[in-house]
Amino acid sequence: MKALAFSLLFLFSLQAENLRVYQYTGVETHHTDRNGKREKIHVEREIDPDCLNIEISNEMMWEGSYANPAVPKACKKMFVTSVGQIQPMQLSPDIETYGEMEVMKFIKEMKKRDDMLLIDTRMEEWYHYRTIPGAINISHLDISKADVFPKAFRKALKTMGVTQKNGTYDFSKAKTIVLFCNGAWCGQSPDMIKHLIKLGYPPQKIKWYRGGMHDWLTLSMTSTRGQ
């Protein structure tokens, strides 16, 4: 089990790092327009220098609207687009990446079962500000910083159905979990997944909602205040 966990962790890290390099370098390609003109284009994340040092808070992230003036105000949404690091589509061969439909199906099934958890991995302040209905809050730091927050670490594992005895973790009753954070540019849930795999958490019981709150709210999905 330990060898498998470290192999998966290695694959996870290698794949993520190989893809993450595009965050800074971008890629070159050629595009032919409808008139047949072929041009070389550098595909990258375009961020205005003025956006690099803005303060990031709940109000800065989620409030505000914009669109063509003719569009009704209720139909408009605007989000910060220049933060974080873009994450790969798949973190590990054995970890499913979820979209909104899969999350909704999971929420529906979760109502009838006690071995499934939808987990918001952000800090408590962000969870209480707005989250996906049905989600509980387990901060990524509770897992990745176990030495700093040992009590929170033990509580988090217990919540996920993991027990510990004599320094050994028992994952036989580990729950199937869906983890998410702020968006496809948020590294908090991937970081928590990486540490869970290192502990030995069964990867087939880990699902990742890559789009997180950014995609959820962009698509006008129902949200709630964390309890």
UniProtKB/TrEMBL annotation:
InterPro entries with a match to the protein in the record: Rhodanese-like_dom (IPR001763), Rhodanese-like_dom_sf (IPR036873)
Rhodanese domain span: 112-225
Coiled coil: none
Pfam family, one: Rhodanese
Domain of life the protein comes from: Bacteria
The name this protein goes by in its record: Rhodanese domain-containing protein
Organism: Sulfurovum riftiae
